[in-house]
Amino acid sequence: MNKQSGIHYLREHREAGSSNPVPAQVVRIRDTVVAGLGDLLQGAFDAVDDSLFELANNARSNNEQNRYFEAMREIRIKRKGVERHFQNAVAQLFANPPQSGSVAADESLASQTSSDSLSLVGDDDLEEQVALNAMITKSKVHFQGPLLQLQTRFSVVYPGASDEAPVNPMAPEHLCSAFVEAIQALEIQIRERLILLKQFDRYVVSNLGMLLDEANRILIQAGVIPNFRYHGKAGKQQSKTASGTHADETGGNASAMTEPAAAESQQGHHEGAMFDQIRQMLALQRANAGIPPRASDPNIHVVGGAELASLLGSLPQHPPGEQISGNLSAGEPVMVDLHQVVQQLLAQAGTTSDGKKPALAEMDEDLINLVSMLFEFILDDYNLSAPVQVLISRLQIPILKVVIKDKSFFSKATHPARRLLNSLARAGIGWSESDEKTRDKLYEQIHAIVVRILNEFDGDVTLFETLGEEFEQFLARENRKSSLVEQRTRESERGRIKSQKAQETVDQLLQKKLARYKLQEPVRNILINGWSRVMFLAYLRDDVEHRWLQTVRVVDDLIWCLHPHQEDEERDQWVRVVPGLLKSLRAGLEEVSYNSSKLDEMMADLKHELTEAFRANALAEAMEDSPEPEPEEDIPTAHQTAIERQQELEDAAIAEYVAQIDAIEIGNWVEFNLVNGASFRCKLSAIIEEADCFVFVNRMGLKVIEKTRTDLAHEMRRGRLTVLEQGALIDRALDAVVGSLRSKAG
C-alpha cells in the first residue's frame, strides 16, 4: 500500500518505539484479544475463500477465472503467515500503544489524507484507503461507549499516558493498521484486496464489541476506574464524583443524581445527563401545569430523604394479596401504581403536629414517576421473554425502595440493582413459550433470585450485588456448556451443508453437460454412477487438494473425445488426450472404491466407444452444438411468463428486507412466529455463505432451524420474523422514557 496511507504513521510509531513490558493489568487482556482476533480472522479468511470461489464459478472468461483461482491459491499459501503477522502486530500494540484521539494523531491523519496528498496516491491505494476509512469510522461510531471507557482505563494503566495523550491499543484504526501490514505479503490485485478488507470488516471489526467489553470487565476487576464518569463539556473523563452538583429541588438533598453530565458511557449514552434531561422535562410539565414548588407552601411538610425511606421501609415487598412462593411467573405481569402506594403511605402518616400536610419532594416524585415509567416499558417490551417479564414485574416495590434510598440507580450503569435487572433480561431473551420452566435451571435461578429479593431485601443494596455475582457465575457455567454444544452444532451443520452443496453442484453440472450431448448408456453410467462420486469428494477436499477443476476437465475431455473429429490436428490431439483420460478415470474410480468387478467391463466398453468415435470419418448425426463446449449464456426471451413477472415483483418486494437480514450478526436473537400462532426464539449461530444458509440454535446450543437469506426476508415481510433488541434493559427503557416525554412536550 502507498505510504501516503492515512494509517501508516501508526506503524512507524510502533516501529520507532522500543518494546516495553506490558503492564500487569493488561497481560490478560492482550492474551484474550490476540486469541479472539485470531479466531475471528479465521472466519474472515474462510469467507474470502468462499467469495473468490463463487466469483471464479461465475467468471465470464478463462482469464478472469484464473485470476480468482490464483488469488485463492496465493491467500491459502500465505494465510497462516498473515494470521501470525497480524497477531504479533496486535501484541506489539499492547507493548507500544500509539496515542489515540490525541491532537498529534488527529493532525497526522488529517494531513496525510488531505486532498493534496491524495492526489499523489494511485487509484488502487485510494480505493483501499477509502474502504479502510469507512471501516474505521463506522466502528468508532458503533463502539463509541466501550472505546471511550477503554481508552480512559488504558491511559491510567500505561505510564506516560494521560487525558491529553491517551492510548488504546484496541482502537479500530490501530487494529486495521496491523491487518494492512499483515496482508502486504499477499500478491493480489485491488479487487481481491477489497474483498479481503470487506470480510475483515464483517467478521473481525464488526465483532470487536465482545472483546472491548471483556477488556473493560478485566480492568474493572483489577480496580481500574470501576465507576467511569464522563463530562461532556470539558471533554475529559474522570473516575471520581464531580464536585459540583445542582441544588436539590427541595433545597436540601444533594446526591450523585444531580451531577450535570456524569455517568457511565454505555452504548454511546451518558445516563447522568439523560436523567438530568428527564428531570428537566418533568419539571417543565409541572411548571406548564401551574404547580408551584412545594417547599414554598407553608402548609405543606415536604417528605423526602431518610424520612421517605423510613416510610417505605414499612411497605411490603409485594403487592397486597400477592404470594411470594410457588410459581411467580404464573399469570400475567403485575403493574403496581407506585404513586398511589406512596400517597397512601403519606395519608397514613397524617398531618404533623403543626398542622402541615405531608407531600413528596419534587425529586422523589420524579424518581417514583420514573420507576413507574421504567416498569411500564419493561412490561410492554416485546424483546423480553414472557416468563422473565412476569418475574421482573414482581420487583417494582423493591426497586422503588432502592431508588429512593440510593438515587444513583438511574445515573450509574454499574449500580448493583440495575446490573442485576439487565442480567436477568439479557439471560432470558432466548426463552420460548414452549420451554419447560419447572425443569429449566435458568428459570429456577431467576425465580430464586426474585424470591430472595422479596423475602430478604431490607434496604441494603449489597443483596443485589451478591445475587448479581452469583447469577453471573451461574451464567458463565451455563454459557460454557452451551458454547461447546453450539460449536459442535455449527461444525456439524457446516459439514452437512457443504456435503449437500457438493452433491447439488455435481448433479447440476453433470445434468447440464449430459443434456447437451447424446452419449451412449455405458458412458452415461460411468459419469452418473461412478465419476460423480469422484467429483463429490474432490469438491469437499478442494481446500486442500485443489482437484475439483481437474475432475470437471475429465468430464469435458471425455465428451470431446467421444465425438468424431475430421481435422488432422484434432485427431492428433485425441491421440494425446485419451491415454491420460483413461488413466485418470480408472484411478479416480478406484480411489472411491467403485465396484471392482464391473470396473474392467465398464472401462472396456468405454474404450470401445472411444475407438468407434475415432474411426468415424464423418458425423453420424448432425450436431447442433460445437465439439468444444462454450459457456452458456442466458438468452432473453421476448415475453416474460406470468411466473417470471411474479418472481420479479417478489424480489423487488423483499429487497429492503434482505438488507435487514444481512444486518443480523452472529449471536443475535430472533423470534419466529408460526402460522398456528405458536412462536419460538433462537440465536443466529452461523452463516454459511457458500450455501446461502443461516443456522439458528436455541439457548442450549442445539440447532432449531435453517433458512436461506431469501426465505428469511419473506418471513420478515410477512411479520413472522422479529429481530430482538439486546441492549441493556435500563438503557433502552431510559431511551423510551426520553422519547415519550419529548413527544408529550411537543
Task: Note down, in words, how this protein is organized.
- This protein is of the alpha+beta class and 746 residues long.
- It folds into four domains: 24-101 and 124-222, no CATH class; 288-315 and 334-459, no CATH class; 517-620; 647-745, SH3 type barrels, CATH 2.30.30.
- The protein is 61% helix and 6% strand.
- The strands form four sheets. A five-stranded antiparallel β-sheet has the order 10-9-8-7-11, sandwiched between helices. A two-stranded antiparallel sheet has the order 1-2. Strands 3-4 form a two-stranded antiparallel ribbon.
- The radius of gyration is 34 Å and the shape is elongated.
- The protein starts with 7 loop residues before the first helix and ends with a helix.
- Residues 1-18, 102-121, 231-269, 617-627 and 632-638 have low confidence and may be disordered.
